[in-house]
Amino acid sequence: MLFSSFEFVCLFLPMVVVGFYLIASWGGRQAAIMWLVVSSLFFYGWWNPAFVFLIIGSIVFNYFVGLQLKRGTGRLGNWILAFGISANLCLLGYFKYAGFFADNLNRFAGAGFDLGTIALPLAISFFTFQQIAYLADARRGDAAEYSFLHYCLFVTFFPQLIAGPIVHHKEMMPQFEKSATFGVNFDHLAQGLTIFVIGLSKKLIIADALAPHADWVFNGAEAGHVLTFAESWGGALAYTGQIYFDFSGYSDMAIGLAWMFGIRLPLNFFSPYKAKSIIDFWRTWHMTLSRFLRDFLYIPLGGSRKGPARRHTNLMITMLLGGLWHGAGWTFVVWGGLHGLYLIVNHAWRWLAASHGLPALCSGRTWGVFCHALTFAAIVVAWVFFRAQSFDGALAVLHGMSGANGLGEIAKNTGHFGKTMGFVYVFAALALAFIAPNAHQLMDKSAPGLETDATRSVPKPMAWLNWRPSVLWFAATQFMLLASLYTMMRFGYEEFIYAFF
After folding, report:
1. Domains of the chain: which residue ranges?
2. Which of 41, 267, 353, 449 could in theory staple to 358 by disulfide, Cβ–Cβ 3.0 to 4.6 A?
């Protein structure tokens, strides 16, 4: 069930929130937690009920492995951890990558593997990675002892189940131990609803409206159409805006939904298009995945402890595997490889500047604008491979972006970007990403999300923009909600881009 669907907004969400607080007041905490677990499993099974058994099996397995980790010491504990992580990766590998590797073996080695169609379970990467993190925390003693019911809630809690954030056990579950969590807090409800509606508006009004423009260009590239400079850049920028507001919208909705229950989730998205370097971009884009890859891949590989050459190798390996995590396709690997290359260049330039006493990178207004533009252009180029269905399609778009097929005429009707308003909408959406404060900054005094070092140092917006109980904020929230519902009913809605990663 999608957050941006009528069934969720108008039926599921009100019933679950009201039911949670009524059951907590009448039946106690454990009954309320049971209600959330059952509701979350229903939410997950709405798309395909058969996969409910898969997630329950994964939960049971990891819970009992976690129990053994808490009891096991020394070498035995290490073996149990290795077994648990391997089993999780095998499950993920079968559903997500078995077909990919079989196809490549058939193509390059002449093998004859035929695995048939393997349906990809919704959110399998997210609940698998979350449970791998849990096993590692249990081995270190960072996951406190909780009941099986509590562990089920940790994995299935519906605000973060489909596309993150990837949460550590110690970040979320202690909050359910507080008695205040189970009492109605109207401030939390109002703040959470506001953040949810901001995210819903981003998704339905901006991201979904950009999708047809991007689809027209990328589908045309796959079909062999010759794309002009204007069309190619229009499609690439449309997708750049689409994935931004799609994922940003989901992240806001997840934070807002959890806050309605008095739960703070880690921030997962913090205005990444404002970054002036690729290093800063990855500190603010999908922050919990970046944390997971750092803690479970980059650092175990050696991190930056063994010299620049080893650090750059570790960065590239991490980003290549991070790209493959996003999808079983070589275009995703290239996307990850490009970002690995970007990070290597970024780190090398910082080292060069520091070792030769050069001024700080991107210091000053002029250099800041240049670095921002260069970083954004690199991100757009990488998104072309992320969105394209094949190398041929990606290269066709990039060929058009180079101007080799002509500049095109924006004023004439040559597809979605033949009309000036198409470009105006794309540029207006990106301007919001560049200039506007994000939802967490607007809710600064409420602090509904768990901050990171990357977000604490960001300047706060003007005080008059901060959320407060007022007629103005009430009217703005109602307007965004009604506009989103109208858009949903009038034009439908797209699936979240990250839902099937």
Report:
1. 6-184, 188-274+415-489
2. 353
- What distances in angstroms separate CA 438 from CA 48, 292, 343, 485, one per listed residue? 34, 23, 25, 22
Contact at 8 Å (CB) between 127 and 161?
A: yes
Q: How many other C-beta atoms are found inside a 10 Å radius of the C-beta of residue 144?
A: 14
**366 token code pair:** 């002029």
41 neighbors 52 (Cβ within 8 angstroms): yes
Can you list the alpha helix ranges (DSSP code H) found in 2-142? 6, 13-27, 29-45, 51-71, 74-109, 124-140
Residue type, 284: T
- Confidence tier at 163 by pLDDT (50, 70, 90): confident
User: Strands 449-450 and 265-266: what pairing?
Assistant: parallel
The closest of 134, 56, 120 to 326, measured between CA atoms, is 120
Question: Position of tokens 């991070």?
Answer: 322
**Long-range Cβ contact pairs of 177-183 (< 8 A, separation 24 or more):** 178/262, 179/29, 180/262, 181/261, 181/262, 181/263, 182/21, 182/24, 182/25, 182/29, 182/32, 183/21, 183/24, 183/25
Q: How does pLDDT run across 91-109, given as a tens digit for each residue?
A: 999 999 888 888 888 877 7
Which contiguous run of DSSP H or E holds residue 265?
Answer: strand 265-266
Q: Integer distance in angstroms from the first to the last C-alpha of the chain?
A: 16
pLDDT digits (tens, 9 = 90+) for 238-289: 999 999 999 999 999 999 999 999 999 999 999 999 999 999 999 999 999 9
**Closest to 375 (Cα-Cα) out of 338, 401, 327, 321:** 338
Catalytic residue positions, numbered: 326
> What is the spatial distance between Cα 358 and Cα 169, in angstroms, rounded to a whole number?
43
